[in-house]
Structures are given as structure tokens and as C-alpha cells.
């Protein structure tokens, strides 16, 4: 089966060989305080910075998932105020989760057809964390680098946190526009689930140091101390880090990856634009459509039929998410998906949309 689910999604084709190599080299049972681990961790951090164009001054942490990053941010970086701008289910979940930990979290929902409006934000306090979801996996929208840049300019004293779970390693993100970025590896990294990546600016680190919150095993202050030696505060997903290192070693730099995905997106988009009247984009506004997660809308019965037919032909289409669970389907446009697999899907869509 070819998996086009937007997470967990198709893993890099070399994963079986890398797992075997990890076993053969004894990586699967190395001690996380050993030199071998620290070297591997340092190398992985270096590769991430190089391939994804992350500023040298930023610190990279390993977590267990994007969800854990919600918790770490709420417990370690948010002093009192956080402002959550969202148009879809993941941004809303981040807000809801944060509110349970910090009662002063404020949510602003915006129309999924609209770009994030930086001019109209009403931020009642002088500081705090602005939270946005760069790529909203539920509705297939994205916030451009330019918009995040504007946000940065308008609010130089706030920290900006970005959920980039379904775009990091697939889109060329301008990391210097924000302070905290995070993702899970089962999306654009093409790895099995169970590892999260959190990228923090010097200002985010300074904030955590200033707040000195240390009540949790994954308090950022502990993570910062440990990461100075390329270690983690608990026994991490060593195999996941090894696989990440191997996958990043053979990945091209992000601009090239993005170019490939944009080209594929365009080809899919033409098929959706030419589709019968039964199917249309969930999002009409081209300017906010995601390049890495496509959401296509249709009558629930037709969508169900289409998914079944695809399955018979060895293609897994992603279900819709949340409010659009039954009246849409999703296609992951992630780097690990192979050229001939894209071709197979395009052929199917050309015939059936
Ligand atoms: C998948 C996803 C998450 C959750 O990732 P986990 O690895 O399950 O924690 C969060 N935000 C977005 C935008 C996602 O796509």
C-alpha cells in the first residue's frame, strides 16, 4: 500500500536498512550518557541546522512528540500570557491544552480562508508568547514566512511559538522570524513516530532561564543543561535520533526539497482544479493553501467511495480531520513519498476525481 496519510506517513525507503545498521552497530543499546551517544546527538543537531537552514545560535532539543512540546512550552516558557491564533483543529488543541496549564491563555480563531492578520491583533499585555500553527494539518492551510516576519516586526518584545509539525523538513521555514519551532518526525521527516524536535532561539532559552521553572522531568531548564553536552534529561528515543541522523544525511538542503514538493503540489492542484463538480478544494483561497497537506472536499458518500476505490488500488488516502472528517480527504505531499508513487496517485486522481 502507498500511504498518503498526512501522518503517520510513508517512511523513508531506507528505514529498514538503517534499523538493521543501528542494530548491527549496537546503537539500539548505547547508553545515553556515553560518548557515542553525545557524538551522534551532536552530529544530528548539526545536520538539522545545515539541511533546514536553522541559525547556528538556536538550540535543538529532542522530545517525544509535538504534543509534548505543547506541554514543555506551557510549563517552561509561558510566564502568564499566551495568545493563540488558529484557524483549525491543531491550533485549537494547542490553545485548549495550554489553557489547562495556564488559565490566562487567550484564543483567537480566524477564518480558514483568511491570512493571519497581524495588524488587528489585540495583545493586552506587553509581553507573552504568540502561538501560531504554520501548517494546519486539519484544513490544509499555511502561514507564509512573510506573514510570520510581519508578526516578528510588529511584536519585537513577544516570543513567537510556531507549530510546524507537518511542514518542518518539507517547507523552507525562516527560523529567525520566531523563537520556538517544533515538529514530530512522522510527517515531513519520513520517520516512524515517537520523536519530536523543538528548536529554540536564544531569547526563548533566556526566557526559560529567567522563569527557572523546574517542576517537571521535561522542564526546559533541565533540557538546556543537558543539551549543552548533547544529552537529554531522560533516556531518549535513541533509535529515532539515529534514524533522523541517517535520513538527514541523505536529504538535500531544504530549498531543493521545497522545490520538489511545490512542483508536485502544482501537478496535484491542476488535477483538483480540473476535477468533476463532485470535488473541490476545502480552501478556496490559493494564498493560504498548504503545499504539504492537501485537503479536498466532496459529498461524504462520494469521498467514502473514493477512499475505498483507492484502497483497492493500493493507495491510502488520508481521512478528513475534525469538522471535515467525512466530507473531505487529505493527501500528504511529504518528501519521503517516491516519484513513482506520486505518479500512481496522479493517475488515480485523473481517472476518479
Ligand atoms: C500531527 C500534528 C500534531 C501532533 O503531533 P504528535 O506527534 O501526535 O504529538 C500537532 N500539530 C500539528 C499541526 C500536527 O500536524
Automatic annotation (TrEMBL):
InterPro entries linked: Aminotrans_V_dom, Pser_aminoTfrase, PyrdxlP-dep_Trfase, PyrdxlP-dep_Trfase_major, PyrdxlP-dep_Trfase_small
Pathway: Amino-acid biosynthesis; L-serine biosynthesis; L-serine from 3-phospho-D-glycerate: step 2/3
Record field: catalytic activity: O-phospho-L-serine + 2-oxoglutarate = 3-phosphooxypyruvate + L-glutamate; 4-(phosphooxy)-L-threonine + 2-oxoglutarate = (R)-3-hydroxy-2-oxo-4-phosphooxybutanoate + L-glutamate
Gene3D superfamilies: Aspartate Aminotransferase, domain 1 (3.90.1150.10), Type I PLP-dependent aspartate aminotransferase-like (Major domain) (3.40.640.10)
Record keywords: Amino-acid biosynthesis, Aminotransferase, Cytoplasm, Pyridoxal phosphate, Pyridoxine biosynthesis, Serine biosynthesis, Transferase
EC top class, as a word: transferase
Gene Ontology MF, one: O-phospho-L-serine:2-oxoglutarate aminotransferase activity
Alphabetized Pfam families for the sequence: Aminotran_5
Aminotransferase class V domain boundaries: 8-319
EC number: 2.6.1.52
GO BP, sorted A to Z: glycine biosynthetic process, by transamination of glyoxylate; L-serine biosynthetic process; pyridoxine biosynthetic process
Keyword set includes Oxidoreductase: no
Cofactor: pyridoxal 5'-phosphate
Family the entry assigns: Belongs to the class-V pyridoxal-phosphate-dependent aminotransferase family. SerC subfamily.
Protein name, per record: phosphoserine transaminase
Lineage summary: Bacteria, Pseudomonadati, Bacteroidota, Cytophagia, Cytophagales
Amino acid at each position: 500500500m502507498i500511504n498518503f496519510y498526512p501522518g503517520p506517513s510513508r517512511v523513508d525507503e531506507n528505514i529498514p536498512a538503517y534499523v538493521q545498521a543501528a542494530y548491527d552497530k549496537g546503537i539500539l543499546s548505547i547508553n545515553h550518557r556515553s560518548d557515542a551517544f553525545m557524538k551522534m546527538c551532536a552530529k544530528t543537531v548539526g545536520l538539522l541546522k545545515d539541511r533546514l537552514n536553522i541559525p547556528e545560535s538556536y538550540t535543538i532539543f529532542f522530545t517525544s512528540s509535538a504534543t509534548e512540546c505543547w506541554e514543555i512550552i506551557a510549563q517552561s516558557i509561558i510566564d502568564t500570557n499566551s495568545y493563540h491564533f488558529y484557524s483549525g483543529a491543531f491550533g485549537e488543541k494547542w490553545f485548549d491544552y495550554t489553557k489547562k496549564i495556564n488559565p490566562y491563555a487567550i484564543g483567537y480563531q480566524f477564518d480558514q480562508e483568511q491570512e493571519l492578520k497581524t495588524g488587528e491583533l489585540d495583545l493586552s499585555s506587553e509581553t507573552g508568547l504568540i502561538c501560531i500553527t504554520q501548517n494546519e494539518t486539519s484544513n490544509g492551510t499555511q502561514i507564509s514566512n512573510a506573514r510570520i516576519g510581519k508578526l516578528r516586526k510588529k511584536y519585537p518584545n513577544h516570543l513567537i511559538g510556531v507549530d510546524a509539525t507537518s511542514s518542518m523538513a518539507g517547507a523552507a521555514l525562516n527560523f529567525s522570524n520566531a523563537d520556538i519551532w517544533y515538529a514530530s518526525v512522522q510527517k515531513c521527516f519520513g520517520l516512524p513516530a515517537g520523536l519530536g524536535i523543538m528548536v529554540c532561539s536564544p531569547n526563548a532559552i533566556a526566557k526559560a532561564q529567567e522563569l527557572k521553572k523546574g517542576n517537571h522531568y521535561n522542564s526546559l531548564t533541565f533540557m538546556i543543561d543537558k543539551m549543552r553536552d548533547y544529552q537529554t534529561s531522560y533516556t531518549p528515543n535513541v533509535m529515532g535520533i539515529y534514524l533522523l541522523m541517517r535520513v538527514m544525511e541523505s536529504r538535500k538542503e531544504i530549498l531543493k526539497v521545497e522545490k520538489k514538493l511545490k512542483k508536485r503540489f502544482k501537478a496535484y492542484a491542476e488535477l483538483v482544479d480540473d476535477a468533476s463538480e463532485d470535488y473541490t478544494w476545502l480552501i478556496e483561497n490559493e494564498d493560504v493553501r498548504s503545499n504539504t497537506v492537501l485537503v479536498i472536499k466532496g459529498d461524504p458518500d462520494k469521498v467514502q467511495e473514493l477512499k475505498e476505490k483507492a484502497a483497492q488500488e493500493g493507495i491510502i488516502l488520508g481521512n478528513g480531520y475534525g469538522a471535515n472528517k467525512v466530507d473531505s480527504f487529505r493527501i500528504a505531499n511529504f518528501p519521503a513519498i517516491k516519484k513513482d508513487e506520486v505518479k500512481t496517485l496522479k493517475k488515480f486522481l485523473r481517472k476518479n476525481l
